[in-house]
Amino acid sequence: MGFRINVKALSLHQITQILIMKLLFITLGLLALAVGGIAIKIWAKKDGKFAGTCASQNPMLNKEGEACGFCGKTPDEYKDCSEPQHS
Hints:
By secondary structure, the chain is an all-alpha fold.
């Protein structure tokens, strides 16, 4: 990393605290990167909405072809669906 520590002058407790702090900074950095990526994805989408969020549209999740619990449509009815929550 960017700074050097004289390990011989530190106790085991202090070394442990430094390592935990480094781990915390790395974790927070990765979380910030993930949240930033999601924010950019939402910002790049039209009106910040994700298309086709109804689980009934996914054949992996709806193998029996059941109707949507939110709107009541079957997977066959999504092709010509004009409702804003499914576009």
